[in-house]
């Protein structure tokens, strides 16, 4: 059954307006949990849908989804037992080697992930690991630069879901690898900032297996009547802890079997 979230609630509209003002002004706002609650899933995704509709109406194009809260440690920190998802837009995409202006992401924090590039729709049938593997055209090493419109990252589950799962921008590495060549759960990750290792992890840290994270997203997307489609990018979740970045930082993540992805942050003051 298709599930939709109502955006008629005045609290939902107020929360969307608060987050919109923060995004437009570049000034972080207070949390929105005073309006929608800490863990009201329906209201939180309703806010996200309102903001997504505003973006697409203004000309942005959806290019995929991101999965967040895939780490048990982060779930415990926020008092939840489930991941969340956000929407990726065309103006969020960077390539390895690019320089990212700091002003495009508020309060930026970076994490390393595996990005799945879908070659087929995930809209029907048994949406299991075998189907996800079949539908995946290739995977690449990726960096997600998360950003929060909420001051000091003071977020509950409801806050981050409403705020598009704290999405900022993402960086795709150059090496395209099929799932016949690499098993995501076995990938080992090391991330360095300015030559110093700041984060390590592996595929098992992402819901036990990045493929299973995509299975969760595919099923959830179908339930919402917004299935994943061929051509979509799916950021499957962090392989290790995220780290804050500032102007001038050079970030490089190396993922076994997938190679490295590097990005530079433009000099300047972070929002």
TrEMBL record:
Top-level lineage group: Bacteria
Keywords: Lyase
Nuclease as UniProt keyword: no
Molecular function, one GO term: 2-oxopent-4-enoate hydratase activity
Residue ranges occupied by any Fumarylacetoacetase-like C-terminal domain in the UniProt entry: 91-264
Protein's UniProt keywords contain Lyase: yes
PANTHER family from the UniProt entry: 2-KETO-4-PENTENOATE HYDRATASE (PTHR30143:SF0), ACID HYDRATASE (PTHR30143)
Name of this protein: 2-keto-4-pentenoate hydratase
Organism annotation: Nocardioides gansuensis
